[in-house]
Design a protein that fits this description.
The structure is a homodimer. In chain A, helix 1 crosses helix 7 and helix 5 runs antiparallel to helix 6. Helix content of chain A is about 55%, strand content about 5%. By secondary structure, chain A is an alpha+beta fold. Chains A, B: It catalyses: RX + glutathione = an S-substituted glutathione + a halide anion + H(+). Chains A, B: Keywords: Detoxification, Transferase.
């Protein structure tokens, strides 16, 4: 029976799982769980994931949720997946776990906090919260610095000094792509100072094309829609004081 | 060379790693990184973990941080560790990853938020924040419900319906033990409605004794010290409205 992936491409962990499947030629059926329609809370989906979150998978009779757990499972369960995505080597694998664990409490919290409180909230029926957005920005900025000084240390193009991407690159880059939703000036303020992060995002895009662009199409469309709703010059919920000079555009 | 564990027993993930080593007879040297003295930010410790967090390990030339990554590494690297702690079975292992990933964003955020904002803050030079404590309490309560209805579903004594504990039981129970720091009425209000959670905590204690009590001694001492500082009747930062009747004491 074909693997089923329950996801909404509006969610970054959903995109990470779909991207991983596509890049590795895993045969799967994508079943949309529409977050805008709150389908993740439907009784049908609660049978798949009682936590009411996407993504989730069903592989035969086996059900699983949490994107990192899914990525690890897929890398192990499908023999065609190349070793570099989730190396069998004990030490390399441990370091990938370390990045993935770190991601939860730092990069993801910062990224979700800023996107939700600074821009996306109203589309989901939540108010903008400039104070929460500012706190999230602080966490996100320090997380980006840590990615640069710790995880991207060395000469490799990918996390942990590797020359080939792992599931950690997929997860973290898909998270950072969510910043596309922000106004360009805000996104550039955040990513501008982090040259190495920008190069790494580009390397991950390149390594996973053409699937990367296809999987992120929904995101670019959402960005366009949001930009039309808030014309240039209109203030977002974020304190876009643009303290840091722009070095480059993403 | 002996495994080095850099930890402070005041931190719940530190206790989880130390407890795991002790229960499994792993020969290790415990090196205290005093959080009260902010030693986690010292240049010496930053050489071990540039993120400035405990626990961290050094095994020969290999350095690792993030407690879940460490627990998985230890379970794999030390042949004496019984399979039930981190089963080789692909499906069982995937479920354990799912619990551990879930823990980061739900149980841990709720638990840390309530302890820090509702009680411990001043001891660390931070103000009490009743609003943040109330938000954390909401997250913690819903996490406890999910543990009961999802992770403790079935008849097994441990998470995922198992009859033997895994690294997930160690991590989550050590997290919940931090609630000992709260005033008894607050802790009972939180845990009182969750009978199955209470039984599971007891089962995990029992399965890991006498090490469990020894490793948590620091916590009980800290609790006693805090209780002396705030005599009975004095209001903590928490809104202890005691809406829920007490079913049992922990």
């Amino acid at each position: 029976m074909k693997l089923k992936v329950f996801a909404d491409r509006k969610s970054q962990p959903s995109r990470a799982v779909i991207l991983f499947c596509k890049v590795n030629g895993i045969d799967f059926e994508e079943i949309k769980v529409d977050l805008m329609q709150k389908k993740q809370f439907s009784p049908e989906f609660k049978e798949i994931n009682p936590m009411g979150k996407v993504p989730a998978i069903v592989d035969g009779r086996f059900k699983l949720f949490e994107s990192h757990a899914i990525l690890i499972y897929l890398a192990c369960a499908f023999p065609g997946v190349a070793d570099h995505w989730y190396p069998a080597d004990l030490f390399k694998r441990a370091k990938i776990h370390s990045v993935l664990d770190w991601h939860h409490s730092y990069l993801r919290r910062g990224s979700v906090g800023i996107v939700l409180n600074g821009k996306l909230g109203p589309a989901l029926g939540l108010p903008l919260n400039p104070q929460a957005a500012a706190e999230a920005e602080k966490l996100l900025s320090s997380s980006l610095s840590k990615i640069e000084s710790v995880w991207l240390k060395g000469s490799g193009k990918f996390l942990l000094g590797s020359n080939q991407p792992s599931i950690a690159d997929i997860s973290l880059v898909c998270e950072l792509m969510q910043l596309e939703i922000l106004d360009d000036k805000d996104r550039n303020r955040l990513l501008g100072p982090h040259k190495k992060v920008q190069q790494w995002i580009e390397s991950t895009k390149k390594a996973t094309r053409p699937h990367f662009d296809e999987v992120h199409k929904t995101l670019y469309e959402a960005k366009e829609k949001l930009q039309k709703q808030s014309p240039v010059g209109e203030d977002s919920g974020m304190k876009s004081s643009l303290k840091t000079p722009l070095h480059s555009k993403m």
